[in-house]
Structures are given as structure tokens and as C-alpha cells.
Design a protein that fits this description.
This protein is an all-alpha fold and 162 residues long. It is built from six helices and no strands.
Length: 162
């Protein structure tokens, strides 16, 4: 419980009187939002504050050390967190885990597409799509749809393309 006198930047919303409010203020300060003004308000000295035997709403001279060390430690933790997320995603994208579409499937699809894309413009006529699908699925079980094992699924895909 830290009773620093309310001022311009330490007020009923930004203060250190309750634990939840402390966490909120520290998180906001970690984003460097107005942290210098909050630190300055926490350094209040007498005669702007009240000092008695039972009550003290003055700040501290150690506030600068606290804020700077908090930022160094906090930024180090967040930097490590962000770097670990980036490295984890990078590792997952280049691992040898099984993917839905293998390189062989992709190369085969490209060969079949090039066969039907006579103008080499990335477009094929709509009436050629069922033939493309039939050629893909008869030769290989591409995209998990096989005309033999799951004929109804294959016919649904071809019917929707026709």
C-alpha cells in the first residue's frame, strides 16, 4: 500500500494504492506510455505532501532507480518472449514434419495444371476443371480425395466444378 498524493499523472486511475491498480500502472508504464510523468509525480517531496507519524503521502528518491531497473528487466523479458515466439514459428516452418501437401503433390499439380493452361497465363477454362480433377485424382490421391476410396466426395468436387 503506497499512498502517494494524487497529482496530475498519479490520480484515481493511475496510482499504487491497490494491487490490481499497481499491475495496471506497471503494465502501462512498461509500454512507455507517460512513464516519465508518473515517475516525476512519485518523487513528490515535502511541502507538497503530508508527513505525520501515522500518515505519509510523499514519494521516494529511489523511484528513478526502480523505474529504470523495471524497464530494463521488463524489456529484456518481453524481448526474449518475442524472440522465442519468432524462433518457434521459424523452426516449425522449416521442420521436416508431415504437411498436408507434399512437394511431390505440388509438383504433380503444377505439371497437370500446365497441361491444361495452354496460354500459360494462370487461367484454365471452367469446362476443363473436371478433367483436371479427374486426372489429378486418378493418377494420385492428391488433397486426400481419391476417386476409388471416396467416390462420393470425388463426384461432389467434380460436380461443383462443372
Amino acid at each position: 500500500d503506497l499512498n502517494i498524493r494524487y497529482q496530475t499523472h498519479v490520480n484515481e486511475h493511475v496510482n499504487f494504492r491497490r494491487f490490481a491498480r499497481v499491475i495496471f500502472v506497471l503494465f502501462i508504464n512498461l509500454t512507455l506510455d507517460n512513464w516519465g510523468n508518473v515517475m516525476h509525480d512519485c518523487q513528490i517531496k515535502s511541502p507538497q505532501c503530508t508527513v505525520t507519524t501515522h500518515f505519509n503521502d510523499c514519494g521516494s528518491t529511489y523511484v528513478t532507480f526502480y523505474f529504470i531497473s523495471f524497464f530494463i528487466i521488463g524489456s529484456y523479458i518481453f524481448m526474449n518472449l518475442v524472440m522465442s515466439i519468432i524462433l518457434d514459428i521459424f523452426e516449425a516452418s522449416f521442420s521436416n514434419k508431415q504437411t498436408l501437401l507434399s512437394r511431390r503433390d505440388s509438383a504433380m499439380f503444377q505439371r497437370v495444371w500446365n497441361y491444361y493452361d495452354e496460354d500459360v497465363n494462370g487461367w484454365i477454362p471452367r469446362h476443363k476443371l473436371p478433367h483436371l480433377m479427374q486426372l489429378l485424382f486418378v493418377r494420385e490421391n492428391v488433397l486426400g480425395v481419391s476417386p476409388i476410396g471416396q467416390r462420393w466426395r470425388y463426384q461432389t468436387v467434380v460436380a461443383q466444378l462443372a
